[in-house]
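Students often ask why inverse folding is considered easier than folding. One informal answer: many sequences map to the same fold, so there is more than one right answer. In these notes we will look at a single instance of the problem. The structure comes first.
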C-alpha cells in the first residue's frame, strides 16, 4: 500500500482535465487497468456515504500513494497526510499501512520516540532530530498516532 509524502484544484465544473488530473487518470489506469482512458479514477470505488477521511482510507488500501490520493481528490498532500494520522488514531489503518514502512522500522521509530518523549513530551522536532532528519514529520505523526 501507499505511503505518506501538488495540490490539484478542480476545474470549473469539476470535470475539465488538468495536468494533475491527467496524472491521476494515468495512475488510475495503472492500478485499475480496465478503467477507460480519461475515466474518473474515483468512479471505480463505492464511496457513497463515506466522510473525507474514509475516502482516503479506501484509496490508500487500494494501493494509491498519498500524492495520488491528493491529486485525484483535489486536496493538498498535507490534508491526506492528516487523514492518514487520523485513520491510525481511529484504528482504521496500522502505522505500517499508513506509512508503507515495515514493522521493524515502525518499531525502531517508536523506541526512539519513547526515549525522546521523556525529555520532550508531545514534541515532534526532537524526535525528527533524533532520527537524523531522515523520517518525514507526516510519517512521525502516523506512528505516534498509534500510541
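Output (designed amino acids):
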Amino acid at each position: 500500500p501507499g505511503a505518506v509524502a501538488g495540490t490539484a484544484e478542480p476545474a470549473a465544473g469539476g470535470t475539465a482535465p488538468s495536468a494533475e488530473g491527467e496524472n491521476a487518470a494515468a495512475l488510475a489506469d495503472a492500478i485499475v487497468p480496465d478503467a477507460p482512458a480519461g475515466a474518473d479514477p474515483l468512479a471505480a470505488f463505492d464511496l457513497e456515504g463515506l466522510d473525507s477521511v474514509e475516502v482516503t482510507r479506501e484509496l490508500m488500501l487500494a494501493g494509491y500513494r498519498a500524492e495520488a490520493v491528493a491529486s485525484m481528490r483535489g486536496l493538498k498532500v498535507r490534508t491526506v497526510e492528516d487523514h492518514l494520522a487520523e485513520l491510525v488514531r481511529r484504528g482504521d489503518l496500522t502505522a505500517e499501512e499508513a506509512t508503507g514502512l515495515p514493522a521493524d522500522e515502525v518499531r525502531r521509530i517508536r523506541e526512539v520516540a519513547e526515549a525522546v518523549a521523556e525529555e520532550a513530551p508531545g514534541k515532534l522536532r526532537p524526535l525528527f532530530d533524533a532520527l537524523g532528519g531522515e523520517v518525514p514529520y507526516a510519517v512521525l505523526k502516523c506512528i505516534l498516532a498509534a500510541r
